[in-house]
Design brief:
Elements: H1 5-12, H2 15-18, E1 32-33, H3 45-55, H4 69-78, E2 86-90, H5 92-104, E3 110-115, H6 119-128, E4 131-136, H7 146-156, E5 160-164, H8 176-185, E6 189-193, H9 197-200, E7 214-219, H10 221-225, E8 231-235, H11 237-246, H12 254-265, H13 267-290, E9 295-296, E10 303-307, H14 313-322, E11 325-326, E12 328-329, E13 340-344, H15 348-361
Parallel strand pairs: 1-11, 3-4, 3-5, 5-6, 6-7
Antiparallel strand pairs: 2-8, 7-8, 9-10, 10-13, 12-13
The protein binds pyridoxal-5'-phosphate.
Length: 362
């Protein structure tokens, strides 16, 4: 055996994986971090002490509970999901996207989504071997084009459809009637991804049970617990039982289970934080629109999508970075996102720093 690792990789690793790039995460040390839709607020000190005290009871020598019923019940109640729906937990909703795609993957099967949307759908489709089909959103307001969507459903007969509600990175809520039409016409499973539910006050949770092919996905990440990695899918038992077979047995670790359970006992803290973020979003929208060389779309999430004059987006991104402000550069991510940057709503002082830096750059 004298082959080098690189030669072995070339021989054995799937070509589509070798030719793809890993999900890029920017180095953020020392930056005002407005790139990843995190809740910027820390926990009050007394809450933090009680949480740490709570963690003392965990026996990390033991495996975590494989399917923590009390935590699921609590999540269902606090997140406003109907009592009758089943819940499956994942290591972030990213893992659940993976589980669902794996469960449905097969020769010539299609995952369909409108675009631009959350990048992980396409990445996951590639990893598991699903064909990915995208329907372009309307370019003016990123709304769903009803005819094009239904035609794509008819043509591809998708095994899986993802609808992010609100959508990332565009921030808008799609028309719920159009979504219902899509759900009705889709032969396979439709996942309504409500990662930004804490900022949206709109949800498809009330539709669960009305359609045999609808599940709703949530996460605690954007609420304020991104570091814990916990997401969930709510929906009919028949679907969730199959997802459970693909899920790895101990996918949600003991520290996460205990920490989320503790955080949910103090849900009011997170509610007031997300309300503050939603208020700051309106203020930021107004102030950004006052800078007249920026186009900003309205948002039901904790970020705003901004577009700059033709050709200037990447340079503005770099200039912000030089001033130690990190946002998400969407240039190249999708044809509809040329010269677009996505900025997460941070603390007031962070938002001010961003706006001042941007005004100076422009
Ligand atoms: C951030 C995001 C997720 C990922 O959430 P995690 O639970 O942190 O994995 C899922 N869907 C959308 C649309 C997102 O923007």
């Amino acid at each position: 055996m004298s082959a080098s690792p690189a030669e072995l990789v070339r021989r054995w690793v799937r070509e589509d994986i070798r030719e793809s790039a890993a999900y890029p995460v920017a180095e953020a040390e020392g930056f005002v971090k407005l790139d990843a839709m995190e809740n910027p607020y820390e926990w009050p000190p007394d809450l933090k002490s009680r949480w740490l005290e709570n963690l003392r009871q965990i026996e990390v020598n033991r495996y975590p509970h494989p399917s923590p019923a009390a935590l699921k019940d609590r999540l269902r109640t606090v997140l406003g999901l109907p009592d009758h729906v089943q819940v499956i937990l994942g290591n972030g909703s990213d893992e659940l996207i993976h589980i669902i795609a794996l469960m449905l993957a097969g020769e010539d099967r299609v995952m369909l989504a409108p675009g631009p949307t959350f990048a992980m759908y396409r990445i996951t489709a590639r990893t598991v071997g699903l064909r990915y089909a995208e329907v372009p959103l309307n370019t003016d307001d990123f709304s769903l084009p009803p005819e094009a969507m239904l035609e794509a459903v008819e043509k591809h007969q998708p095994a899986l459809v993802f609808l992010a509600y609100p959508n990332n990175p565009t921030g808008n809520l799609f028309d719920d009637k159009v979504m219902c039409d899509i759900i009705e016409r889709t032969p396979g499973l439709v996942v309504v991804d409500e990662a930004y539910a804490p900022f949206a006050r709109m949800s498809f949770a009330s539709e669960l049970g009305k359609y045999p092919n609808l599940v709703v996905m949530r996460t605690v990440s954007k609420l304020g617990l991104a570091g814990l990695r916990l997401g969930l899918v709510a929906g009919p038992e028949a679907w969730l039982a199959e997802m459970d077979k693909v899920r790895l047995p101990y996918n949600v670790n003991a520290l996460t289970q205990a920490s989320v359970a503790f955080a949910l006992e103090h849900f009011d803290v997170f509610t007031s934080q997300t309300e503050a973020i939603a208020r700051d979003r309106s203020e930021m929208l107004t102030r950004l629109r006052a800078l007249n060389s920026v186009k900003v779309w309205p948002s039901a999430a904790n970020f705003l999508l901004c577009q700059f004059p033709k050709g200037r987006g990447p340079a503005i991104y770099e200039a912000l970075k030089e001033r130690k402000i990190l946002v998400k550069n969407l240039q190249g991510a999708h044809p509809a996102l040329a010269d677009c940057l996505r900025v997460t709503i941070g603390k007031s002082e962070e938002n001010n720093a961003f706006l001042e830096a941007l005004a100076a750059i422009l």
